[in-house]
Design a protein that fits this description.
Blueprint (H helix, E strand, L loop, with lengths): L3 H10 L8 H4 L10 H5 L11 H4 L3 H17 L16
Length: 91
């Protein structure tokens, strides 16, 4: 029977899979503020912009996506926040 501590060490020593910038992979030159499908992938469930460590985008594309999201919010295409329905304690 294998020693469980050795198995645990092997899992910890394995290299993490590096995140790739999907915009670099697809060779996108810019992020359009009208492309809501692309921009919604960079938003959380509360309509907050996700940081680079979650999405894996490079600095250049993260700035482009952030500016496009802000511009589409200003135009009214994306919401600033999403309000979830809150229930009273008795319900």
């Amino acid at each position: 029977m294998a020693n469980p501590t050795i198995k645990k060490r092997n899992i910890l020593n394995q290299a993490k899979k590096q995140k790739r910038c999907m915009m670099c992979v697809k060779q996108c030159s810019h992020a359009d503020y009208k492309d809501l499908r692309l921009l919604s992938t960079y938003l959380s469930s509360f309509a907050r912009i996700l940081p680079r460590r979650y999405t894996g985008t490079c600095v250049r594309h993260q700035k482009m996506v952030t500016n496009a999201i802000k511009k589409s919010r200003l135009m009214g295409l994306l919401p600033y926040t999403i309000h979830h329905k809150q229930y009273a304690k008795g319900e």
